[in-house]
Amino acid sequence: MKNIIVCLMPGATFDKPTAGLLAAARGLQPQLTIIVPGIVSDDTTAALAGQADNVICASDDGLDEYQPEIVLGVLQSVCSDLNPDIVLLSNDTYSQEIAPRLAGRLGGVSAGDAQSLSLDGDNLRITRSVYGGKAIATVELRATPAVVWVRAHSFAGLDAKDAPGTIEQRSITVEGDAAKHLGATNIVERHAESSGEVRLEDAAVIVSGGRGLGGPEPFEQLKDLADAMKAQQAASRAACDAGWVPPHWQVGQTGKKVAPELYVAIAISGASQHLMGIADAKVITAINTDADAPIFKHCQFGLVEDYKAVVGPLTEKLKTLLS
Amino acid sequence: MKILVCLKQILDPDIPPRDFAIDRDNRRAARGSANLVTNIFCENALETALQLREKAEGEITALTFGPSSAEDVLRKALALKADHACLVEDEAGEYRNSATTALVLAAAIRKLGEFDLIMVGREAGDWGAGQTGGLLAEQLGLPSVSFVDSIEATADGVTLRRQTELGWEKVEATTPLVVTITNNDENVPRIPKTRDIMMSARKPVTNWKLSDIDVTCDDITAAGTALEVVDLAIPEKTTECEFIEGDSIDEKIDAFAKRLASIVQSA
Ligand SMILES: Cc1cc2nc3c(=O)[nH]c(=O)nc-3n(C[C@H](O)[C@H](O)[C@H](O)COP(=O)(O)OP(=O)(O)OC[C@H]3O[C@@H](n4cnc5c(N)ncnc54)[C@H](O)[C@@H]3O)c2cc1C
Ligand SMILES: Nc1ncnc2c1ncn2[C@@H]1O[C@H](COP(=O)(O)O)[C@@H](O)[C@H]1O
Questions:
Q1: What is the pLDDT of residues B12-67, one digit of tens each?
Q2: Range with the lowest mean pLDDT among A16-25, A195-204, A311-320, B106-115?
Q3: 20 to 30 Å CA-CA from B201: which of A57, A147, B12, B77?
Q4: Does residue A261 sit at the B interface (CB-CB below 8 Å)?
Q5: B59 phi and psi, to 5 degrees?
């Protein structure tokens, strides 16, 4: 049996990615421990206990919100004590930031964006997309602990176990080596913005725009289209890099991984790195002047037209059809 | 401010999938006719460093670990006016995992001297590991911040803006510090001038072997086997696209709208 630990981040809730992460962990073996640094609600703790043998709420004075060096110190302290073989984290910004550093501190090895997990004898194997989505690699992690962040959204959550696990409160004082950088970095402002009311990852319909739109104004036009479809707006990297829309609209390898029922790609060519973000979309469609654009190879249906001639009338038609 | 930027040379990530092939025995991409280029996030990092140097005085050192061909990424950095460049040559010329790379980069950085800021890309466009920055911070015993997209120097350190999945955060940090850089509209890499490209060919590049930075074969082997690619494959995916037809554009839009509406209604 492996000693598997799932580390969540401060403020974690039992949401879809958390459920997915725990399902990924339970897919390896039923026994696991969850560590939650910082403050979490009783409801969340209870829901977590339904998925694990043991939930450790590990808090340090001053750990109200995520701060990299404190969270790292707390996780290092608890993990040094529990001696895990495998540490799994989710795919949020904070988990991605912590994973390699925790591996470095615990003398283990790290990897990210695991799409599947399995045990091969003693070792953890993961699959992950590489070369911008053009290939898929199976990677074996042979040092202990194997610290991996998982593409949590892609796993379906599991029902609670028959008997809930124990809940333990641990008050941790980060000290010694684990404390060496406390105070070196300090998140002083947090700004949450979004492209709509729902997180892109949870959106059912997404209207996404690319470089072919030619500027920021057409995104306003796409907003009307998105509103008509109750959709969230997103973009390709090229559109974000041009400054037409904010960076967190970006979908793809280094942007959001989305899983809508419908993804409408407008003036997006469909580079493999962009497609990596929409692998879990149910239906992909596109509007593009170029019938040979790679995006169409991933579309169930598509429209070869200039977006300029399409978006206005399409919006009007959809308003009527969907009213 | 003394800045070190780590740059990785990779196979051009923009090659179309039909030109992409795998060297299955060695579990890596076949070179084929693809160019070798600087990883885009490393270019974003260099651009961020150049902008920082324009505002706060300083020096930029470019560092790469790779086969001799990796000198090209350093020449390009020199053309963009990096002050110094260092190549740690990997005679085996293989893909190295992040653990090995972090070990080598850390050894090279220790030999190069003291730096206030060590900048790496958020991930390399070939293997997309995204691990080197964090591992390097631990190797060097430094704090780190990831997904940074702009940096300002302050009296006693730096103020960073970094991206999160919901927006952004402002981070105050002391130096020395490791940061991983992501893209935004302000760090789109500048293009070197032809004249500067020519001048860069004559600038010196420090060329080290692994033995010069006291990294042994055993170190490399240990880090290399800790994380191994056991299989590499090209995913099969073909969706037959039905192009919406119609006698007029209006008819096409009509048909398209109906298809969209029916999916939205059941979503
Ligand atoms: C390491 C790495 C990570 C990356 N991560 C991401 C990522 O997360 N997300 C991402 O999106 N990209 C990512 N990229 C970039 C990616 O490779 C592409 O460069 C990018 O996706 C291209 O964006 P685009 O499709 O909007 O632009 P283009 O490729 O320029 O395509 C524009 C399209 O618009 C069409 N068009 C032009 N005019 C019109 C018109 N009037 N009407 C209709 N169609 C029109 C054109 O036919 C073309 O197909 C990454 C690249 C690297 C190397
Ligand atoms: N061989 C290398 N030489 C120099 N820098 C590297 C090398 N490999 C990785 N890096 C740095 O680490 C970043 C992230 O790479 P990775 O962790 O491999 O995805 C890159 O953007 C580079 O800045």
A1: 999 988 899 999 888 999 999 899 999 999 999 999 999 999 999 899 999 999 99
A2: A195-204
A3: B12
A4: yes
A5: -130, 145
Residues facing residue A234 across a β-bridge:
A208
On whether both B247 and B218 belong to a single domain, the answer is no
Instruction: Lowest mean pLDDT of A74-78, A181-185, B92-96, B177-181, name the range.
Output: B92-96
No. of helices (H) and no. of strands (E), chain B: 7, 15
pLDDT at residue A94, as a whole number: 97
Regarding whether B153 and B108 lie in a shared domain, the answer is: yes
* Residues B264 and B205 both lie in one domain: no
Which of B:232-251 have CB within 8 Å of A?
232-235, 237-239, 241-244, 249-250
**Geometric angle at alpha carbon B168, from B162 and B173, rounded to 5°:** 40
**Between residues 4 and 23 of chain A, which touch chain B (CB distance below 8 Å)?**
none
Residue B90, chain A, CB below 8 Å: the answer is: no
Same domain, B205 and B258: no
Query: Could you read off the pLDDT of B241-264 as tens digits, one per residue?
Result: 999 999 999 999 999 999 999 999
Between CA B96 and CA B90 the distance in angstroms is 9
- Gap from CA of B146 to ligand 2 centroid (Å): 13
Residue A212 in contact with ligand 1 by CB distance below 6 A: yes
Nearest-atom index, ligand 1, CA of A209? 26
Distance, in Å, from the CA atom of A22 to the CA atom of B228, rounded to the nearest integer, reads: 25
- For A47, other C-beta atoms within 10 Å of its C-beta total 20
Structure tokens at A232: 């969230």
CA A315 to ligand 1 centroid distance, Å: 23
Q: How far is CA A323 from CA A228, B252, B261, in A?
A: 8, 21, 10
Q: In sequence order, what E strands does A260-300 have?
A: 262-266, 283-287
Let me know: does A245 contact A268? Beta carbons within 8 Å.
no
Closest residue to A241, CB basis, from B183, B226, B259? B183
Identify all chain A residues contacting B8, using CB atoms and an 8 Å cutoff: none
Cα angle A176-A98-A41, degrees, rounded to a multiple of 5: 90
Are residue B205 and residue B250 in the same domain, yes or no? no
How much is the average pLDDT of B65-80?
A: 97
Per-residue pLDDT tens over the stretch B202-223? 999 999 999 999 999 888 988 9
Q: Which tokens in the block code for residue A191?
A: 């700004």
Do residue B244 and residue A302 have CB atoms under 8 angstroms apart?
yes
pLDDT at A195: 65
| pTM as predicted | 0.95
Q: Does residue B231 lie in a domain region?
A: no
State residue A75's pLDDT score. 97
Residue B100: which CATH number?
Answer: 3.40.50.620
Model confidence at B93: pLDDT above 80: no
Residue closest to B4 by CA, chosen among B71, B37, B38, B53? B53
Give the CA distances from residue B181 to residues B40, B41, B43, B102, B262, in Å, rounded to whole numbers and listed in that order: 10, 7, 9, 16, 42
Ligand nearest to the CA of B183: 1
The range of the structural domain enclosing residue B250 comes to: 237-267
